[in-house]
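Run log, item B.
One chain of 444 residues. Sequence copied directly from the ordering sheet:
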Amino acid sequence: ISPNSDGSFTDRTVSNIVSPIDGDKRLVPDWTRYESEHITTGSDLIWQVNDNWNNKLSYRYSTSYRNPLMPILYVDGDGNYSATLYNYNNLFKSYQTQNVLSGIIETGPVTHNVALGLSHTRTISSNSSGIGTLAIPLGSGNLSSPVEFDRPVSHLDKSDASFNEYSRITRKEAFISDTLNVGDSWDFILGARYGSLEDKYGDYKESEITPSVAAIYRPVEWLSIYASYVEAFEQGATAPNTAANAGEVFEPLISKQVETGVKIEHDNWSANMAVFQLQKGLTYTDGNDVFSQDGEARYEGLEISTRGKLNEQWLVGASAMWLDATNRKTTDESLEGESIQGVADRQFRLYSEYQVPNTRLTLTGGAQYTSSIPLDNFNQWQVDSVTLFDLGARYEIDLNKQLLTLRLNVENLTDKAYWLTSAGSSSIAQGAPRTIKLGAQLDF
C-alpha cells in the first residue's frame, strides 16, 4: 500500500495515514500471492599448513527466485484506493570464490593475528519481461470493502524469470588485516581492502581502497572500551520496477561508520553501550515517481543492551536504541535535514526466559516498542508507534546422544493491527496478526 504522492503538499503539518487494518483481513483478490525460493550450496577446503597457519578455500553458489503476483494499492487518508499490478518474476544468481590465509606471528611482546585473502563474486539478475514492466491498472475501491478484481494475466512459470538479464555485476577484492595483541590490556585492528566493481549494464568499472581500524582497551578483565572506523565500497542502487526511471543503475559509493563503546562481561550479567555514526548513499523516490541516489543518509545513534540472570532459572534481557536518521548533502534543499523515511527514531526490546525447575522446559516472553515512522520525504505522513508482545516455550529431548529441541512461539500475542514499512520506502504493509509457530531442531 502506498499513499498518494504528487509532490504538491501545501503545508508542513504531520498527517495521519489510513488506520491500521488487521493482518487477518485480505485486501487484495484471492488469486494474488508472493512466491519465493532461496537455495545456497557450497563447500570449504581447509589446509592446516602448520600449528600457526592455515589456508581456507571456499565456494558458494546461491539462487533467489521471487514472483510477487500482487497489486500495489495507492491509498488516500479515507481508505480509497486505485490498484495497479506489476506482472513479473525475478531470478538472482550469485557465484562466490574466496581464499583466506590466516596465521599468527610473534614479534617480541606483540602477537599478530594476520589474515590475507582474495575474493571473486559474480551476481546475475534477470526477470520475465524486462525492467520497467508495464503496469496493469485493475480498478479502484475502498479498504473497508476491498474489490475482488478479475485476474488479468496467466501464471508465470519459474523458467520465465531467466528471459531478460538486466544486471551482471562482478566484484573482485584483495584484503589484509592484522589484529595486534599488546600485553593483556590492548588490542589493535588494522586492515585494508581493495575492491573493484564492474556493472555490465550500468556501464562502469570502478575500484577503491577502503581502510578499517579499531582499538580495544581492557583496564580490568571484565571491562572493554573500544573505538572503530570502517569504510566499505558498495554497489550503487538500481531504480525499482515501479519507478518512472525503472532500471536506471547508479554509480557505486563508499559508506563510512564510526563507533565507540563499552562492554562489561561478568559471570551472571553483561552490558553494552555504543555510540555510532553511519554515512551511506541516500536513495528516494520524488513526487514525480523518479528514483534517485542523491546525497547522504546519515544515521547517528546510541544503543544500550543488558542481559543477566536473576537466579539459576530466570534470565532477563533488554535493549534500547535512539536513532537520528537524516538526509544530508542533497541537491534538493527542501530535503536537507529531514528525517529519512521509513526509519524509527526509538526502539525498545525486553526479553525473558524462565527454566522450570527440574525439567527441560523453558518459558519465554518478550515485548518490543517501535516509535512512529515518517513515510514520505518531507515527514508529513507518519506510521503510528506500536508495541508487540510474544510468548513461547521450548523443550529439550535427548535422542541417543543427539539433542532435539521443540519450540512453540506465539507472536503478536494481543493480535495488534499495525503497519510495517522499511528504510527509504513510502509503502506500508499489514503487520502479521497473532501467529502460532511450531518448530523442531535436531543437533548432531
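Observations after the first pass:
- The two ends are 44 Å apart (CA to CA).
- Confidence is low (pLDDT under 50) at residues 5-14.
Flagged for discussion on Thursday.
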